[in-house]
Amino acid sequence: MKLAPLFGIETAAFLLILAETYLFFDVVVPLGSIPHSLAAYTGLALLKLGLVVGLIALWFVVMVGLTRLYTRSKVRSAPRPSS
Amino acid sequence: MAIGLADVGLLLLSLAVPFLITLVGMPPFLRYLTRIGKVSTDAHKSPPARVPEPAGPLLFVAALAGELIAAAGFDSWIPLAIAVGAAAAFVIGLVDDLYVLGGKTKPLLLALAGVLFVGLVAIVPDLYQPILTFPILGDTAPHFIIYTLLAVVAFPVVSNAYNMMDAFNGEISWFTLLTSLALLLAVSLHAAYASGFSVARVGATLPLVAVAAAFLIFNRYPSRAFDGDSGSLMFGAMFAGLAITGGVEVAAMIAIVPAILNSFYTLSSVRGFVERRRMSSRPTYIGEDGLLYPSTEANAPNTLIRLILLSGPLGERDLVRDIVYLTLVACLFSAVISVLTWVHLG
């Protein structure tokens, strides 16, 4: 079943998209009440931005990690065309 | 939602007309393209074959006919909004087919198509609901501004993701057919279990299924027709628009995970938006045995195809079969999410 590792990467991508979309839309976006000072407003905006960047970075890191693992395991035995 | 006999008839019409237009219109349209010299080289054949391209204009006409039937039959603006989004992406794709747009110009123009689409909310207030619905957890709170921004971004992202799945014989047509079926299931379950959800949204989904199914007959290995960017971008824009108007964004995202991964691999390996025809090296090459091999060049883009080929060389037909398997798994996940989200027993 040579596609099994790719199915694994696909499943990880699916679960992360599901979980992170929920976290973004239901936790990060409504985070905190509307602040009354500019400093608090800026701080909250930066916090939300940081959390969003963190969620995106997490997806990237996991995907890159899994793909590197897959590529390394395959590239050593990469086939060459017969001449 | 109660469906009458007239609704069923209209749904069948929204499915049959675009299917038949594509099926009957394609052979003469391909002859016309050949006659005016609009043929492309099928680079993955040895020796390279010549295939008529772009079939996108006929695919657009067929999809438009289906949407117009759904709009008139169900007296709804929703299919018209889908048609507007599809038309904008189709025009951008056609310009790209004829003149080749830059790697950054295309996403920017597609974002404008997204702006045009969400702008229709001024005319059609119920075009979309600014919420996401998750399995078990239910609806999130409405966030109109964030949702609208994401809806705009969805157009270039999804359209380009579809465009990047258009490299091999039958790849785009299989991918569009399977993902549109997953979308149809999600929208139908939403329509069946959520009160007040219009059947027109189901009707708007059917032309995409129909056009993809009919196009598969001509696009499968060995291809007799290529859709061009006008076809693939239109497919992507329709999918994005239908996911938004159907309120099934989560299930839709899951269904296109192979395209998301493919885009992620490509964009991260070439470090930005680069028009594929201007990439300095190819992700794969054809060996003397006629099989496809992963490129060993250091600057080759790292696509999903290249990852599949790392397990061993494949013929084009087998390679597309593997992509179909990956898409089927994603669509299965999407179906599970749809059932868990919308089906309420008892």
Roughly how many Å apart are the termini of chain A?
A: 27 Å
> What low-confidence regions of chain B span 5 or more consecutive residues with pLDDT below 50?
none
* Helix count, DSSP H or I runs of 4 or more residues of chain B: 12
Q: Report the average pLDDT across residues of chain A.
A: 86
Amino- and carboxy-terminal Cα gap of chain B: 16 Å
Keywords:
heterodimer; A: 83 residues; mainly alpha; 2 helices; 76% helix; 0% strand; B: 346 residues; 2 domains; two-stranded antiparallel sheet; two-stranded antiparallel ribbon; 12 helices; 65% helix; 5% strand; globular
Helices and strands, with pairings:
The complex is a heterodimer of chains A (83) and B (346).
Chain A lengths: L3 H25 L9 H38 L8
Chain B lengths: L4 H31 L3 E4 L6 E4 L3 H19 L3 H22 L5 H15 L13 E2 L3 E2 L4 H21 L6 H23 L6 H20 L8 H19 L2 H7 L1 H14 L13 E3 L5 E3 L9 H6 L6 H27 L4
Antiparallel strand pairs in B: 1-2, 3-4, 5-6
Question: What would you note in describing this structure?
Answer:
The complex is a heterodimer of chains A (83) and B (346). With 83 residues, chain A is mostly helical. Chain A has one domain (4-74). Chain A has two helices and no strands. In chain A, α1 (4-28) runs antiparallel to α2 (38-75). The model of chain A has no long low-confidence stretch (mean pLDDT 86). The relative contact order of chain B is 0.16. In chain B, the strands form three sheets. A two-stranded antiparallel sheet of chain B has the order 1-2. A two-stranded antiparallel sheet of chain B has the order 3-4. Chain B has a two-stranded antiparallel ribbon with strand order 5-6. Chain B has two domains: 5-273 and 317-342, no CATH class; 278-316, no CATH class. The mean pLDDT of chain B is 91. With 346 residues, chain B is mainly α. The interface between A and B is medium-sized, with 31 and 39 residues.
